[in-house]
Amino acid sequence: MMNLSSLPELDRRLTQVAIENMLEKYRIFKTVTFEAKEAGTTYSYTERFHGPTHTVTDQTAAIAAHNVDVPAARRAYCAAIDSVVERLDSREQQLVRERYMKRDELYDYTIYNHVFDPPVSKDTYVKIRSKAFYKMALALTDLGMLSLEALLKKDLG
What we know:
Helices cover 57% and strands 0% of the residues. It starts with 11 loop residues before the first helix and ends in a 15-residue tail after the last helix. The protein has helices at 12-31, 59-86, 90-101, 108-115, 122-142. This is ArpU family transcriptional regulator. InterPro entries: ArpU-like.
């Protein structure tokens, strides 16, 4: 059992991969438009063998539910990520937003050399990113969007 007064020790690499994957999903949801499904109106003959005759399929209702549920789930996901990022320190927010949340993908060196004012070293950039991802991992776990168990540092002793 984890001691609640101490913060968990996370594997930095695993945490980075998990958070980057979630931010990539965010970017895709924000930039790729949702294609609504439409009901097909041409019916083709399909041979039906005698099976349960009491089953009914409502293609239009299933499509309508999909067209409402998918965009709503995407909006909820993006809103949750946005709220987590808003709680980070200003430099952490700037790093995450500029590097991972914008349509145009920028490289790390562009961020620490040109976006940060004044520019920071690569080591400082890595520290800021690590702290941001650690905080995000804890917050996303609280929201039930991430499992901390997989990110815990393994004792090799």
